[in-house]
Design goal:
Layout (H helix, E strand, L loop, with lengths): L5 E5 L6 H11 L3 E3 L3 E2 L14 E2 L2 H7 L4 E7 L2 E6 H9 L3 E5 L2 H10 L4 E6 L3 H11 L4 H14 L8 E4 L3 H16 L16
Parallel strand pairs: 1-7, 1-8, 2-7, 3-4, 8-9
Antiparallel strand pairs: 3-6, 5-6
The protein binds adenosine-5'-diphosphate (ADP) and guanosine-5'-monophosphate (5GP).
Adenosine-5'-diphosphate binds next to helix 1, helix 5 and helix 7.
């Protein structure tokens, strides 16, 4: 009944964004996940159209002409958010989760001022390093690049509406769910005429 909104989830590589997004999507029928397009090659186990839509540089160039809400270069690859899906789901009244980087977060806030921006922090850089390595899907060079970028990415956390530390996964999922449930009840998300019934 209240207006749907985009939910941006950002944070350094390996902090647990994908895991947490899967956790909240599985528990909330009113949530949809946006699947980005990327020029990054698929990791082992990633499913085309589920994790990402994997495209060539040339295909990405074409998407840039109107098909993306935002796009950015992250860790030397291109990533972009599909316009039609996001706008379509919001129009249906479903809240859309975007797992995107800090550049994407800033762009989305500009196009959708009603968006909620949540930054995921690790308990420490040591734990973060362990998670990136533990995932076991990236080459050493890629891991080094991601850990270096992590230091810069966390400096953007204060620009976000909420900060969630992903220590115990279940606690972090609960915190995300609490934020979303509260945001759905924000006064500004109710339709203008909702209050008429109370004789305003
Ligand atoms: P991201 O999407 O932010 O790059 P992932 O969701 O792929 O991160 O998580 C990176 C690794 O950390 C995965 O192996 C995942 O299982 C693990 N992980 C995620 N959250 C936790 C947590 N709270 N405690 C321990 N390990 C976690
Ligand atoms: P990964 O290669 O680990 O899946 O993702 C690398 C980074 O790209 C992550 O920070 C992720 O949030 C970000 N990302 C994924 N999709 C998009 C997108 O569509 N737009 C932007 N700006 N960043 C994205």
């Amino acid at each position: 009944m209240t207006k749907a909104f985009p939910i941006v989830i950002s944070g350094p590589s390996g902090v647990g964004k994908t895991t947490l997004v899967n956790g909240i999507i599985a528990r909330d029928p009113q949530l949809r996940e946006s699947v980005s397009a990327t020029t990054r090659p698929p990791r082992d186990g990633e499913v085309e159209g589920e994790s990402y839509v994997f495209v060539s540089d040339k295909q990405f160039d074409k998407l840039k002409r109107g098909k993306l809400i935002e796009w950015a270069e992250v860790h030397d690859h291109l990533y972009g958010t599909p316009r039609e899906f996001v706008e379509g789901e919001l129009a249906k009244g479903l809240d859309v989760v975007l797992n995107i980087d800090v550049q994407g977060g800033a762009s989305v806030k500009k196009c959708f001022p009603e968006a909620v921006l949540i930054f995921i922090l690790p308990p420490s850089f040591k734990v973060l390093d362990g998670r990136v390595r533990g995932r076991g899907t990236d080459y050493a060079k890629e891991i080094k690049k991601r850990m270096k970028n992590a230091r810069r990415e966390v400096t953007f956390a204060p620009a976000y509406d909420y900060i969630v530390v992903n220590d115990q996964m279940e606690d972090a999922v609960s915190a995300l769910r609490a934020i979303i449930e509260s945001e759905r009840r924000r006064q500004t998300r109710y339709p203008e005429d909702y209050f008429d019934r109370f004789g305003r």
